[in-house]
Amino acid sequence: MRAAMASAEVGDDVYGDDPTVNRLEAAAAAKFDKEAALFVSSGTQSNLVAMLAHCGRGEEVITGFGYHTFTYEAAGASVLGGIALHPIPPEADGGLDPDKIRTAVKPDDSHHPISRLLSLENTHYGKAIPLERIQAAVTAGREAGLMVHLDGARFFNAVTALKIEPAALAELFDTVSICLSKGLGSPAGSVLVGPADAIARARRWRKMLGGGLRQAGVLAAAGLQALEQNVAGLAEDHRRAEILATALREYGQAWDAPVAQATNMVFITPKTADHAPLRAHLNGRGLRLGGGEGSIRLVLHRDINDAKLDRAIDAFASFYKRNTLSA
Ligand SMILES: *Cc1c(COP(=O)(O)O)cnc(C)c1O
User: Fold this and answer.
1) What is the per-residue pLDDT across 124-156, written as a single tens digit (0 to 9) for each?
2) Ligand 1 pocket test, candidate residues 182, 186, 301, most atoms within 8 A of CB
3) Residue with the larger pLDDT of the pair 292 and 167
4) Of 189, 207, 185, which is closest to residue 12 (Cα–Cα)?
5) What burial letters (b/e) apply to 277-315, b meaning 16+ CB within 10 Å?
6) Distance, CA 248 to ligand 1 centroid (Å)?
């Protein structure tokens, strides 16, 4: 990937003449069967320019409570676009209930913001939300006259787990945002795909946000490789996540909640007293854990091969076996 970046042909993307960015945008549009694509610096910027492209001031995005657009993007759409965000609590599978969407849509009344966009997410906390569940939510949104956007930061983890073609999920949405970083391994960048008019508006917003890059082909070259060569490896990440979850379930008595696994993520909830010693023990074996109290997320990705996975499992084993023996 570094070699592809070093040898990338570049131009000035602000003038639309960076050939590598243009190739990436054309490849993304084709893969998702959309008219146009826009290369942006991050997933947050991608969702933001999408919301700004769809909604005006005093309009509203209906989304999930805990979805990235609502919880982890500093309310950028509200701050910069005067757009209201209405969150709905997701169901157990991570999807949104169609009835709750219908209830959230506001009547045409001067008391309310104008409901304009439904923004979904897949995967959500690693959960690949089934196509039928997504379809039902999209239909509820469309029947209410909403545009629909997908935050598909981990889009390819979802379609890999669901065993469907990318276009089968993308076709339900007006716009889809996909991270080339995350599991696909690019150092930076996302693409937003959708209709030509919405992407043209998003491109203007990207410029306004300071996201118009010049010789961005060095990043787009990495993104192209991520898109064309790194999707197949996601199934391996999911397989390794299953192995890790199975191994950690051995220490059933150690957890305050059942070990959960979804696509490339494993969630563990150590007993409160174990958090600090577990972190120190793992740290000593080259495994750093983030987070504080409560649930900890372990994410598999293309830099974790079978040997590193074994090391991680051994590091947990040496902590919990020792503790079980001494208990
Ligand atoms: C990571 C992520 C984003 C944002 O991506 P950044 O590139 O970190 O800004 C958006 N949505 C979801 C679901 C994500 O996991």
Assistant:
1) 999 999 999 999 999 999 999 999 999 999 999
2) 182
3) 167
4) 207
5) ebbebbeeeebebeeeeeebebebbeebeeeebeebbeb
6) 27
Does the pLDDT of residue 251 top 50, yes or no? yes
Hey, whose CA ends up nearest to atom 15 of ligand 1? 153
Instruction: With beta carbons less than 8 A apart as the criterion, state whether 21 and 223 touch.
Output: no
Say whether the peptide bond before residue 123 is cis (omega within 30 degrees of 0): yes
Question: What's at 151, amino acid-wise?
Answer: D
**Sheet strand arrangement including 147-152:** 36-40, 190-194, 175-179, 147-152, 114-121, 59-64, 84-88
The length of the chain is 327
Exposure string for 159-171, b = 16+ CB within 10 A, e = fewer: bbbbeeebeebbe
Local structure of 176: helix, strand or coil: strand
Hey, which of 61, 68, 120 would you mutate to test ligand 1's pocket, going by the most ligand atoms within 8 Å of its Cβ?
68
Of 88, 83, 81, the residue nearest 63 (C-alpha): 88
Q: pLDDT, tens digit, for every residue of 259-284?
A: 999 999 999 999 999 999 999 999 99
CA nearest neighbour of 225 among 161, 181, 175, 176: 181
Q: Write the burial class of residue 79 (CB in 10 Å: 0-12 exposed, 13-18 middle, 19+ buried).
A: exposed
Token code pair at residue 272: 């409160």
Q: Can you read off the two tokens belonging to residue 141?
A: 């949104």
What pLDDT score was predicted for residue 222?
Answer: 98
DSSP conformation class of 106: P
Using only C-alpha atoms, the chain has a radius of gyration, in whole angstroms, of 21
Mean pLDDT of 57-81: 98
Taking the centre of ligand 1 as the mean of its atom positions, its distance from the CA of residue 120, in whole angstroms, is: 13
Q: Whose CA is nearest to atom 14 of ligand 1?
A: 153
Q: How many A from CA of 284 to the centre of ligand 1?
A: 30
Answer whether 91's CB lies under 8 Å from 130's CB. no
